Each structure stands twice: as structure tokens, then as C-alpha cells.
Amino acid sequence: MPVYNKLVRDKIPEIIEKTGKKYMTKILSNEEYIKELQTKGFEELTEYVEAKDKESSLEELADVLEIIHALAEYHGSSINQIEEIRKKKAVERGGFKEKIYLVEVDDE
């Protein structure tokens, strides 16, 4: 039996059950949950970086966004509040549309 030991989407056990396979799950504590969300975030970002085409890239970005939704909720917030913070930072500091790559700053 393969061992996964990772956070999965809520309907995964139901999907596995429909295949007739047996599985084992547990409910995480809050401390375990936030740690696993963070780990899952890195996993999904890595999958995005390794995506080979537009469709795969968009699928992985959707997974990253799902993690962001869960993290916002965990912190007692919402994706709307995160979006407002993003907009404020974009006004104050800009976005990344101009593709600016900072090489160095002479601080003398």
C-alpha cells in the first residue's frame, strides 16, 4: 500500500472510496494543518515551475490559489482581504509587469 503522508483536498477520500480501494486518513491539529498547508504551497509552486505547457501551468496556479484561500481562512481572513492588501502594495510599490530585474545598489 503506497504511503502518502500529505494534505489532500477534501473530496479525495470520497474519490478513492469510489474506486473500491481502502485508505487511512486523520484530521490534523491546527499546528499540523498550517505546517502541511505551507508544505503543500511549496509543492504546488514547484509543480507550477515544472509545468511544460499553458494548460498545466494554469492548473497548477489554480492549486496555488486554493492553498492561498485556505491560508487566508486559517489566518481569519479572506481572499478578498488578501486582494485588497495586494492592490495597496501594487499602488505603493508597483507590480511585476515591467519585468525589472535589480542587479545591484550602490549604498555608499
Automatic annotation (TrEMBL):
Q: Which domain of life is it from?
A: Bacteria
The record ties this protein, via InterPro entries, to:
MSMEG_1276-like_NTP-PPase_dom (IPR038735)
Q: What is this protein called?
A: Nucleoside triphosphate pyrophosphohydrolase
Upper lineage is: Bacteria, Bacillati, Bacillota, Bacilli, Bacillales
